[in-house]
Amino acid sequence: MTQQGAVLQGYNNELVKYMEDLCLQREELNKQIQEAEVEKNKLQHEIQILNEQLECVCETLTQKTASRNELDKILAETEAAYMKILDSSRMLLNVLKKEVGNLNKAAELKSNVS
């Protein structure tokens, strides 16, 4: 019976050793989990900050794009109006040249008749 008790004691000692090893592994794994959770929280915080920054940049970009589009519209309208002014100036110059030419012809005719 003492031999069976010794065998049983050996099993018990080995069982306790494995249980202690499992507890150590669990503690190490728990430590790694806690570190990972800290890292996860840190990254989530950084993501939140980056999302807020992205939102601000997107808003600014939207506003600046709208301003640029308005400037493009104003420039196009101004250029069209300026082209009309140039065209009117050209037509006025042509009319004026024609009238001056007619006046010069009339003056020549009058001086030739006198």
From TrEMBL:
Gene Ontology BP terms: axon extension
GO cellular component: axon; centrosome; ciliary basal body
Keywords from the named record: Coiled coil
UniProt key word Coiled coil: yes
UniProt cross-references to InterPro entries, sorted A to Z: SSNA1_fam
The keyword Coiled coil is assigned to this record: yes
The organism's place on the tree of life at top rank: Eukaryota
Regions annotated as coiled coil: 19-60
Protein name: Sjogren syndrome nuclear autoantigen 1
